[in-house]
Amino acid sequence: MEGRKIKIALTGNPNVGKTTLFNALTGSRQHVGNWPGVTVEKKSGRVSYKDYDIEVIDLPGTYSLTAYSMDEIVARDFIIEEKPDIVIQVVDASNLERNLYLTTQLMELGSEILIVLNMCDIAEERGDRIYIEKMEELLATPVIRTVASQKKGICDLLDRVIEQKEIQQHHGHEIGYGTEIEDKILEIEKVLAEDETRDTRYPLRWISIRLLEGDSNVREKISKSPVYDRVMQIIDSIDQEEYEAEIADKRYLAINTVFPQMCTRANDKLTKSDMIDRVLTNKYLGIPIFLALMWGAFELTFAFATPFMDMIDLASTWFAEYVSSSLQPAWLASLVGDGIIGGVGAVLVFVPNIFILFFLLSLLEGSGYLARAAFIMDKLMYKIGMHGKSFIPMLMGFGCNVPAIMAARSIEDEKDRLITILVVPFVSCGARLPIYVLFAGTFFGRQAGTVIFGMYVLGIVIAIISAKILRTTVVRGKPAPFIMELPPYRVPTLKTSFIHMWDNGFMYIKKAGTIILVGVVVIWALASFPWGVQYGSENSYVGLLGHAVEPLLKPLGFDWKISVALIFGLVAKEIVVASMGVLYGAGDNSNVLSDRLIADSGMTALTSLSLMAFSLLYMPCVATVGVIRKETGSWKWTLFAIFYGIIVAWITAFTIYKGGVLLGY
Amino acid sequence: MSEDHETTLDTLKPGEKARITKVRVKGTARRKLMDMGMVAGTEIELVRNAPLGDPMDYNIKGYHLSIRKEEAKQIFINKL
Ligand SMILES: Nc1nc2c(ncn2[C@@H]2O[C@H](COP(=O)(O)OP(=O)(O)O)[C@@H](O)[C@H]2O)c(=O)[nH]1
Ligand SMILES: [Mg+2]
């Protein structure tokens, strides 16, 4: 039975428990996607309650509704343009004052508001007292207490949503900004009202205030209006900065007059969170603890992922063989077996890693430590032209570049984010290790460990140099200012972390899947045609291609075989090893391969070093290319990442090879 | 005792409190700082520096806000 429909939107500051509430409301009935045209995540879900079918949209968490970030623009455009029946602001009861700032802005938008007072357990434990009735009266909105992490107050909230939808009485509440500003607001409103073609969804008062505050996004919205020039005349006559400060001032003043009446805060005694911070961000202990935590996270990732990776590997090998032997005609069997299942399997092997990394990231975020990580690392990152928030994504890159690039979403500033996305591929991921193990093991004997370590360092150095270069060329400017809340430490909800892991892991499979599939099929076709040649051999197209690019790679010490292996490595870098096995007729026996590599006079320690460096740096694997495309939303930057990588790899390998030759190796 | 001596926010020592008098930061950072509660008249306390010395962790309006020295230098205060 179709119930009556209600559409509600969740807003609120970051870290107030919005996601937890959303999950408590919608359970598994949710959908994750993107807002059209931007890379901000859009989550929506459904609840059936009593006779109602309630649609819940989780808006991005913001402190304000100015045009500071894409998140804020997305949130306010949704509220204005989609007109949800009720806008629910989730408020942190233990941090009421700052949370109310957003409330003042929501009221100006003219939306039907309902306030959820979350984290009531923390406020109570601390001894704060909040007078709900007084609050409802002063703000003229319903206020409901919840503890989202324990699912307390959810039914109460739904009842009030329905009730409010049925009464449909709107009480507007406005902040007065003082005579001078109010006069200007009126003046602008009058001019704007003359335009009969205007978008009536936008309240005139709101537009006027936003213009006085210098909101470029709103300015653009009215730029086609016939009254635009006249409005701008008024705006240009004022001291913008002065007005901006005055308006923010007045909002906080309004809050300050009502705040003491609805809440008494316990004495400022040291909270548990403050005590934890004394240790975790301590001058001497902060960095060692941070490093230990990160190291632990990696150990955990590999310990958990390895059995799953082995299973996927076994399953895909078995499945590929089964399909190859039972499908007809032969080319189809090869396409499905060698190409699709083999190739996709090689990429799927990293899915456990990706899932676990997302899970840990979500735990870090929910606990409040993610913000501390940025706080601790910002100074170092700033020195290399990046933001503190870029550190964790880059670190995740050692596990797998894919979740690392997706984790860069938490960086608000577009340029900071783009640079992070572009340099993460230089961080040596797990898939590159087998290449080092083979070549360093074969050619460097007891020094193998040092060589492998050197590759990791090389990746980091190249990433840092690239960040510097990008900052002075294509992504010019300084890193965005570091203005960040350090939220109180909290016990993360496992459910939230599981959902986060699932959503992101699944999104990766879905979105990168197409690109991976196309990549895999193209490589298969190159390796199999002209039909009849041995798969991936010298006479196949990939062999011909290997010969064709050989002159380009000759200066690096590579012959056509290495070129072919590198082409295969585009699917996933660890495939370089497997295809060397095929080309040297060693199958997957690594000892035989080692012997044959040593026997090959074209392969020396120097060539192998040059090859390791090249494999580390040359274009990202197809899965990474897929997420770069998705996260930047631009083919231009995706192509840039590819070609930049190839050029950097070439120069580095060339330097190593020619340098070595000059030194007489 | 309040001392009528205007300085900038970066000179505050851990545990010291002050009242903000003017925010001279420019650009989008200004907007963001104001949205986060950095307006004239507000009380602010330095809790600690990051382990590497920068950024700083301040207590303002009952929560922790962290900014770099670079911005703190452009925020004027009266020490309390
Ligand atoms: N004590 C307590 N913790 C909560 C409550 N609601 C959420 N949390 C925790 O607060 C942290 C942040 O929650 P989250 O939903 O991710 O916040 P968001 O940033 O607003 O989406 C998580 O660790 C949650 O487990 C609550 O009502 N009480
Ligand atoms: Mg959230």
Distance between the amino and carboxyl termini of chain A: 79 Å
The tally of domains of chain B stands at: 1
Low-confidence stretches of chain A: none
Q: CATH homologous superfamily of the domain at 4-167 in chain A?
A: P-loop containing nucleotide triphosphate hydrolases
For the sheet with most strands of chain B, the description reads:
6 strands, antiparallel
SSE pattern of chain B? EEHEEEHE
Q: Strand order of the main beta sheet of chain B, please? A: 1-6-2-3-4-5
Overall body shape of chain A: elongated
Shape of chain B: globular
Number of helices of chain B: 2
Keywords (chain B): Iron
Domain Ferrous iron transporter FeoA-like (chain B): 7-79
Pfam families (chain B): FeoA (PF04023)
GO molecular function (chain B): transition metal ion binding
Task: Write the topology of this structure.
The complex is a heterodimer of chains A (665) and B (80).
Chain A: E1 4-12, H1 18-26, E2 30-34, E3 41-49, E4 52-58, H2 70-82, E5 86-92, H3 96-108, E6 113-118, H4 120-126, E7 129-130, H5 132-139, E8 143-145, H6 154-167, H7 179-193, H8 204-212, H9 216-221, H10 228-236, H11 240-262, E9 263-264, H12 272-280, H13 286-326, H14 330-348, H15 351-367, H16 369-383, H17 391-396, H18 401-407, H19 414-423, H20 433-444, H21 448-472, E10 483-485, H22 494-528, H23 541-553, H24 560-568, H25 575-583, H26 590-599, H27 605-617, H28 622-632, H29 635-662
Parallel strand pairs in A: 1-4, 1-5, 5-6, 6-8
Antiparallel strand pairs in A: 2-3, 3-4, 7-9
Helix pairs in contact in A: 3-11, 7-8, 7-10, 13-14, 13-15, 14-22, 15-22, 18-28, 19-21, 20-21, 20-26, 20-27, 21-27, 22-28, 23-24, 24-25, 27-29, 28-29
Chain B: E1 6-8, E2 17-23, H1 27-35, E3 43-49, E4 56-60, E5 63-67, H2 69-72, E6 75-79
Antiparallel strand pairs in B: 1-6, 2-3, 2-6, 3-4, 4-5
Magnesium ion (MG) is lined by residues 18-19, 61 of chain A.
